UniProtKB/TrEMBL annotation:
Gene Ontology MF, one: aldehyde dehydrogenase (NAD+) activity
Keyword Phosphoprotein: no
Top EC class, one word: oxidoreductase
Catalytic residues (UniProt): 235
Catalytic activity: an aldehyde + NAD(+) + H2O = a carboxylate + NADH + 2 H(+)
Protein's name according to its UniProt entry: aldehyde dehydrogenase (NAD(+))
Oligomeric and partner information: Homotetramer.
Upper taxonomic lineage: Eukaryota, Viridiplantae, Streptophyta, Embryophyta, Tracheophyta
Domain of life where this protein originates: Eukaryota
Pfam family name, one: Aldedh
PANTHER family cross-referenced by the UniProt entry: ALDEHYDE DEHYDROGENASE-RELATED
Amino acid sequence: MGKTFETIDPRTGEVIARVAEGDKEDVDLAVKAARKAFDDGPWPRMSGAERGRIMMKYADIIDKHIEELAALDAIDAGKLFSWGKAVDIPTVARLIRYYAGAADKIHGEVLKMSRELHGYTLREPIGVAGHIIPWNFPSSMFFMMSAPALAAGCTMIVKPAEQTPLSALFYGHLAKQAGMPDGVINVITGYGPTAGAAIASHMDIDKVCFTGSTEVGRKIMQAAATSNLKQVSLELGGKSPLLIFDDADVDKAADLALLGILYNKANMFPLCDQLNDEFRLKCRGEICVASSRVFVQEGIYDEFVKKLKEKAKDWVVGDPFDPRSRLGPQVDKQQFDKILSYIEHGKREGASLLTGGKPVGKKGYFIEPTVFTDVKEDMMIATDEIFGPVMSLMKFKTIDEAIKKANNTKYGLAAGIVTKNLDVANTVSRSIRAGTIWINCYFAFDQDCSYGGYKMSGFGRHLGIEALHKFLQVKSVVTPIYNSPW
Ligand code: ADP
């Protein structure tokens, strides 16, 4: 209440603005507003078509502010401005339209009862949702999490990451312009252990949706369990493998491997231009599920290493507003230091630096694209989620070995396979325990294709109709067909 905190420009380390530091009391107020809007307000009561209409208007307004929104994510999160303008923010509008179109197609089923009863199900909004958002994709994550909840008829509290609060505040402002009723979207800026924790343990929130680290995900689940047993969905860490088989086109596979680790802060336009149309489409992505472990079959390993070293030089690190930059800065000093300490650890453990490994420039949080070879599976750089431009390159001989190595992780978010052999692609994709498998592509996200974790990468799915169902609950209604006593 009344407190503020600084948000930092990762290009310079300087303060951009002071933002309200929401805490438990502010969360209480926001939940009251969301509760009132859900219990008495028009949003869950209006027809799906009407909700969809307002959401479409919201998407149109966002389209009109693409430049400002891309600029906010560039100064606050270090996202490349050109990419934000061309892909990230238009993706947000597309996502909202996708779920707007689903809002009037929510229905239950007529049941085949075993007696003379008429039974059917209704799908009803779950209530007040709490969304806790990470900093890596401030815009797309905001809507990957909130757009299906809006379509379902939920009201919500949205807490952006403390590193990247600016675009979220603007989205809150634009919701009002679109005619979203009061109390439907409540943006709370603040820190995780205070504002975030207050959301996870709130007695009047019906569902908490979290995207972030596995460590914090565990806390969210504990808080939900010890408060009101609110439903939880978690999209957590990853250490996703990319498996490249001997029959792969080495040139394209090297591009894909770099894209797989660098995409979050990357400008993919130069890469897109080199690739054919089909491949380009497959590469267009919206979110980072970094392929931080790259396994290459021994027959092409040496050639692949050579190519990767050459191609890494093309990834120019620089200011996100400079069109020549292909890689922006890390989000803040803490993340910058964490990545550099993993790199030092990798060197101490005996891995070899093929390329990168150092900060770039004296100001801001820029790090070179970094590739380690001679990596052993149990080294920290191969087991921990680093969340930065650091790839561990390893070799394999057989398909079985590749599968075993790919699955040798506590995570299970995604995996990539590069091969022309359909049998290999089919066998491997069914054997890897991960929520998404990309064959001959990576980051091939689509709003209709849900994704989420196996194992300690979490549960519940983003995107697709699966994500809409996450915010609906099923009610069964039963009545006698004949001889009703009333
Ligand atoms: P990242 O790996 O993206 O830095 P975190 O898991 O630390 O992820 O943060 C993701 C989101 O979770 C942020 O919005 C952050 O403020 C929030 N958060 C951090 N700690 C907690 C907590 N103890 N309870 C609830 N939310 C938290």
